[in-house]
Amino acid sequence: MAETQFQFTSSDADRVDRRSELARALARGGMEGAHVISIETARKVLSPKRMDIVELLKEEEVESVRGLARRLDRDKGQVSRDLGDLAEHGIIEYETDGSLRNTWLLSRLSDP
Q: At what angle do helices 65-72 and 48-59 cross, to 10 degrees?
């Protein structure tokens, strides 16, 4: 019997659409704030120190990168780089106002 091989040729846009639909379905099921990323992205992006950032942002608002770095007892430059990577992958968003950077978890943006 011949072995069946599956080839998935979905585009990046298709994958994003499927992840968005899954996040909406989770929200309808009572899991508001769920953010769906691929396992590859999770392995690459969510290091323990970055998870500390995500967990802290889930619990409280932080007024600046410097304040976030202080709360985490980490170097401001390293935290800033981690925030950039998290934002690049859609896990957080931030707003820059001059030298200030306000940071939010992406799921917080949809909270009422």
A: 110
**pLDDT (tens digit, 9 = 90+) per residue, 23-36?**
778 778 887 766 67
For the stretch 21-75, pLDDT in tens is 877 787 788 877 666 777 787 888 889 999 999 889 888 888 788 889 999 999 9
Domains delineated in the chain = 1-36 (no CATH), 39-110 (1.10.10.10)
Residue 37 burial (CB count, 10 A): 16
Positive or negative, the Cα torsion across 43, 57, 88, 81? negative
Residues 15/38, Cβ–Cβ less than 8 Å: yes
SS3 content of the chain, % helix, strand, coil (to 5): 55, 10, 35
Nearest alpha carbon to residue 87 among 23, 11, 27, 35: 35
